[in-house]
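Sorry to interrupt, but I need a hand with the structure work. Can you supply me with one protein entry, sequence and fold together? No commentary is needed, just the two lines. Leave the record below and I will have a look.
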Amino acid sequence: MNKKILVVAPYNFLPYRSGGQKYIAQFLDALGQQARVTVVSTAQDTGYVASAHYRLLPVLPYSFFRYADLTLTATLIDLIERNHYDWIIWEHPYYGWLARIIKEKTGINTLIHTHNIEYQRFRSLGKIWWPLLEKYERKTFQLADKIAFISAADRQFAVNSWTINDRNCLDIPYGITLHSTPTDKANCRTSLVDKHGLPGEKTLLLFNGSLDYAPNYRALQHLLKEVMPRLQKKSKRGYTLLICGKGLPKRDKELVAYRSLGVYHAGFVDDIEPYFKGADIFLNPVLEGGGVKTKMIESIAFGTPVVAMQKAATGLSPALAGPMLTITPDLDWDQFASALDTLADSLLDQPLQTPAAFYEYHNWTSIIERLLAGLLD
């Protein structure tokens, strides 16, 4: 019999508009195909139909104060007692106080599904209250029967720095639905060139991210002022940089001032998939924030190699990515541009292939099979 699992997902994730929302949405959909899943969350956007693979209960208030809503205790206890769930999964450690109460009252097996080591992310963003979050997050981990991590680096941190028993740790990496490199990459590239009026003979670079998020915007500034000038001096072949993402400030005037450097602004795109497929190289010079940069996993899955700063590559396995991932030291723009130029030259001679092991590790079906096996230990 399939396991019965209750999941608490504390914010809107449908329809997904960010990597974090996509991670939750696809995880729940994949989990629901191998277990009997009920999801407690906020009301999702009007008119959007949730997955047929799980039951969605929109009982969480939309206000930020939902994280301190004591009435949720009775709601969750009633659900657990009536439905006899095998496990409860808490997305993020934010509801750690409530997870403790529910475990004490019902004895239910408890899994904390962490998407980052949260305090590290907020510390890197300069939030002065990160020490309080660190204590809270650590105590939440310690109450859980199992903890699922998005990366081996986060798992090792918890084991080594917070003395979490490694036997209680599981892996839920960012997942993909692909099993091999797509076959329509050339067609997607042609479509992008035609759609945006790009010079097709130049190497097509891609940067994607919400530009109203400060770390992404600062990364964009580095590309415009540090990387593209260096590249255009290095190569006779030339480069085009396509920028995708919402939230570009009006003062930047659609980046028209950088057109001479080969920069084009596509704005928000409804479907990023053809952009990942059509680009020659994906760039990630992000130097702040935390956690795995999910866009890099998607790019590699779509067969497009990545050049990233060391900070941006945190949580990715170079062994799994193979030649599809090039990492350079943080803030070394000369080396970043040089590595990118070397990669572009090599792609003219031989297209790169994403290793089969990458697809096996990151495929959602395999991820859920490993997770459910881990819950039996």
Summary: The chain has a mean pLDDT of 93. The first strand starts at residue 4 and ends at 8. Residues 185-359 form a domain with the Rossmann fold fold (CATH 3.40.50.2000). The two ends are 17 Å apart (CA to CA).
